[in-house]
Amino acid sequence: MTERLQRPSRLPWIGAALVAGTALAGAAAWNRRQAERAERRAPASGRFVEVEGARLHYLEKGEGPAVVLLHGNGTQATDFVASGLFDLLARRHRVIAFDRPGFGYSSRPAGRVWTPSAQATILRAAFDVLDIDDAVVVGHSLGASVAMALAIESPEAVRALVLLGGYFYPTPRVETLFGLQALPLVGPVLNNTVVPLATRLLSRLMNRRMFSPHAVAPKFEALVPRGMRARPSQVGATAADGGMMVPAAFKMRRRYWEVMQPTTIFTGDADRVVDPGRQSMRLHREMAHSDLRILPRVGHMLHYAAGRKIAAVVAQYATPE
Question: Which UniProt keywords apply (predicted)?
Answer without folding.
Answer: Hydrolase, Membrane, Transmembrane, Transmembrane helix
